[in-house]
Amino acid sequence: MASSDSPAVARRRVRLAVRRAREAKAITQSDVAEAMEWSLSKVMRIESGEVTISQNDLRPLLSYLGIKDRVQVESLVASAKVSKQRKQWWEAPPYRELLTPSMVQLMGLELAASEIRYFYPLIVPGRLQTPAYARAVLETFSGELPEEAIEARLKLRELRRQSFLSAQQTDVFVVLDESVLLRQVGGAHVLRDQLDHLLTLIGDQRIAVRIIPFVEQAPIPMLATYEIVYLADGGEDAAVLHRESDLLDEIVEDKEKIKRHRDIFDRIWNGAYDESTSAGLIKDHATALV
Asked: Which domains does the chain have, with CATH numbers?
């Protein structure tokens, strides 16, 4: 375990080790629950990352799963200890209740990321949205979410944006469809401010953006929104995929699925306008929105 691990990364290390050891023994989560005298939901939530596991619970679990190497056990126990430290603002009320378990994990992993790749064919990614643009996006759910929930989510999104702006430098690559530059989310003035914000981030070298063009031959994006997060010092488990559509989202750790999404991202990235041309296109569209 790296001494600088964040709680999110430490929690992920423990749950991946537990899940892989269980699968290697060809036993079910129900088998684990019965052997440990736990509820099935407890095992499921530990493996999914929804909850942490105490050191006292982890030691007998590792023994049952056949993980007995002293160095490995102590490393995982240390990770379990770190996973319970420094609770982040989004893990406490009132924000925790507004987030899916996948989003809670994602926000922790983003802070520990060395690289993030966003594929967004319809709108600007949430962490890069201005407050007015975010309001316009979230208000499309007004028929499904009460007003107080929308307001709370707006505050959460703004805090998430500020955490991105104040965090250590992360390599961020963004693919947007050209339609994003034309779709007047919240009206022309809101879109212009949003495009200007993207240009500022590009100028500050916080993000690299490429636009999928309308008029030239380019790969056609057929997937929903997703991002791939690469963790610093993550080794073979460095990459995490987050996919979302409408009100649903999920964390994906299957290496083949992540590779497929990365291959698609690379193909679209290479077929899109380069960064300089894309920035010029964003500027042209922003200027036109007078």
From this structure: 7-86 (1.10.260.40), 90-288 (3.30.870)
